[in-house]
Amino acid sequence: MTKIKGLLIMDVDSTLIQEEGIDLLGELAGSGPEIADITHRAMNGELDFAESLHARVGLLAGLPVSVFDTIRKQIHFTDGARDLVDSLHAKGWRVGVVSGGFHETVDGLARELGIDYVRANHLEAIAGKLTGKVTGDIVTKSVKLDSLKKWAQELGLDLSQTVAMGDGANDLPMILASGIGIAFNAKDIVREQAPYQINVPNLALALDIIKEVRGEL
């Protein structure tokens, strides 16, 4: 069995993809500005993430589940996303995503890129419509950190062999716990604390940081 050389995990909204998925859903629900404001405040660390998620999801009640097909057409991978994933895979790495967004959109994105691990929230739907509730555990900052630790352990890796990247306050614990923590076009609170920064929208630049720190991929 080939030895796994490293693990990179990243946030999805405003990191793997250019958009905030829940904001797109909010627009279709007629609550766009209100949801976008809550998202902004949560990502800046001004609001408890779980509470903010419940508040935003509540505003989505009544949307048909077909809405996920609609917003997929509005979602764009961040430049360098495929290059990053493909390059890491070619070097014996694994890649995971941890999202405060929803499996209903994130799973498809992960399949497109061949991402190895996925953790996100589940939206409840009854009779083909969203109820405005989340089912199961919410992906909070502690869940993101736990996912990093769990996947690293499964792969036989020390945390020093991991990379974590994201833009929001709920990404900070995993960024700070990883061997290489990267703030990606991040909010001020994240940039102030993360060991490394990427401030242009190109995920492939993470490869340069990894090579600089580790000497090789």
Automatic annotation (TrEMBL):
State the Gene Ontology BP annotations. L-serine biosynthetic process
Pathway participation = Amino-acid biosynthesis; L-serine biosynthesis; L-serine from 3-phospho-D-glycerate: step 3/3
Catalysed reaction(s) here are: O-phospho-D-serine + H2O = D-serine + phosphate; O-phospho-L-serine + H2O = L-serine + phosphate
GO cellular component terms, A-Z = cytoplasm
EC number, UniProt record:
3.1.3.3
Keyword Amino-acid biosynthesis included in the entry's annotation? yes
Q: Which cofactor names does the annotation list? A: Mg(2+)
Signal peptide location: none
Indicate the residues that form the catalytic site: D11, D13
Which top EC class applies here?
hydrolase
SUPFAM superfamilies on file: HAD-like
The terms under GO molecular function for this entry are: L-phosphoserine phosphatase activity; magnesium ion binding
Taxonomy, superkingdom: Bacteria
User: Which residue stretches, if any, does this entry annotate as coiled coil?
Assistant: none
What keywords is this UniProt entry annotated with?
A: Amino-acid biosynthesis, Hydrolase, Magnesium, Metal-binding, Serine biosynthesis
Name the InterPro entries on file: HAD-like_SerB, HAD-like_sf, HAD_sf, PSP
Similarity annotation: Belongs to the HAD-like hydrolase superfamily. SerB family.
The protein's name: phosphoserine phosphatase
Question: Source species, please?
Answer: Pseudolactococcus paracarnosus
